[in-house]
Amino acid sequence: MAEAIQNTNVFSSSKKRMNPDDSNRDDDIIAKKLPTKPTWEDPVMALANARHEFGEHGGVNMSIEASATFTVMEPETLSRMFAGELGPDRDFFIYSRHFNPTVLNLGRQMAALEGTEAAYCTSSGMSAISSILLQLVSSGENIVASQTLYGGTHALLTHFLPRSSNITTTFVDIRDLEKTKEAIVEGRTKVLYFESMSNPTLTVANIPELSRIAHEKGVMVVVDNTFAPMVVSPARLGADVVIHSISKYISGGADIIAGAVCGPASLLNSLMDLHQGAFMLLGPTMNAKVAFELSERIPHLGLRVKEHCHRALVYAQRMKKMGLKVIYPGLEDHPDHLLLKSISNKDYGYGGMICLDMGTEAKANKLMNLLQNYTQFGLMAVSLGYYETLMSCSGSSTSSELNEEEQALAGISPGLVRMSIGYSGTLEQRWGQFEKALSRLQEPGLFGKN
Fold first, then answer.
1. For the chain, how far is it from start to end, CA to CA, in angstroms?
2. Which intervals of the chain are annotated as region Disordered (predicted)?
3. Helix, strand or coil for residue 186?
């Protein structure tokens, strides 16, 4: 089976099950179904042009293949599948930890969304991150990463990988291109890792220049695009691999944990190799029923993202006028505003996340308490991409894995409130709730301008 996975594009095949002895099989045709470098389209256009999987009985929605294992009609077929002669490219499946038709279909949608040759979906965002890094980096080798990352990723790089795999990470301020270049050690550094829009400080990565620097030294570029689906397309800008926590914007319902790795078909095939593949051997398998649910949500992702981003921009502009210390890359005075404008996809906005720096954790907590329990503006909860606004004080929650020094280097103040702006209710209704909470605060001079 490993041989079949390595030699065929299982991620893009549209062939249905054939007779095992069909002499008309043409691996070259299968391989040509996607060009080496996909022609880029607007994300919504790309999704609309992707293969639409119909249900078993002609339903407009695909059927769920919930089986863990799959039957064969002839006893010899099973041995041929394990020998690598037959595989998913011809609709022959063995076991859903290896490949599942429903999960493969979601992968095709994710590949279309990000403009990559292939994608494979996993049980969580962290399983996607850990698997791709373990696939690309071996014992004794090095990763260069942004010093501002999601806390779980930072902990993986700082603590787990050095202990378990002898893999070290050099953290840098990726805005300093020269220092990033200096940190990469040719022959030892294998991956440059960063987030397209950093969690939680909303700095924007110069993906084209960072990719150029990495590729000049033979290093793979892996970008977490969880904060900016539709808004930014890292693969179009030079990145090799794009990671998602699908649990966030792509799901949109705060009810599913899932992840994805999008990249070259050859890399995704290697992840599924029977003897050396991290996906195959570590087993971060996505449930087919979860894949089905997610596939039904992706078609309206563009509409949701546009509304998230529209409201975030309006709120950020109004907060700034009130004298609040607001961080949002859609504001013209944000240091990365022009960069994001130059690399983002037209008409999708500047992201749905806002940071409001209250200075101290006590002030941040007071504001969040009022916003949830007094005016119902939003909910005190981690995560993002939900239809309700979600708020958390990053330093004591999603970035708590970083110590005080690391938080300071990452630009995370003790009172930094991360807001994932929702779209429920009307814009003016929610803004009125925000203003009402502010008026309840009694601390004089808290916001500078009054």
1. 68
2. 1-29
3. coil
Distance between CA atoms of 394 and 89, rounded to whole angstroms?
Answer: 44
DSSP 393: E
Give the DSSP letter of residue 1.
Answer: -
Tokens of 92: 């022959």
> Could you give the CA distance from residue 139 to residue 266 in angstroms, rounded to a whole number?
22
Question: Could you please report the per-residue DSSP string of 239-307?
Answer: -SEEEEETTTTTT-SS----EEEEE-HHHHHHHT-TTT-HHHHH--BPPHHHHHHHHHHGGGHHHHHHH
Task: Give the residue carrying structure tokens 């030079």.
Answer: 238
Residue type, 400: S
- The per-residue pLDDT for range 14-65, each reduced to its tens digit, is 445 556 655 444 333 223 333 344 456 799 999 999 988 898 889 999 999 9
- Tell me the pLDDT tens digit for each residue of 95-149: 999 999 999 999 999 999 999 999 999 999 999 999 999 999 999 999 999 999 9
Integer CA distances (angstroms), 356 to 34, 209, 336, 427, in order: 44, 29, 17, 18
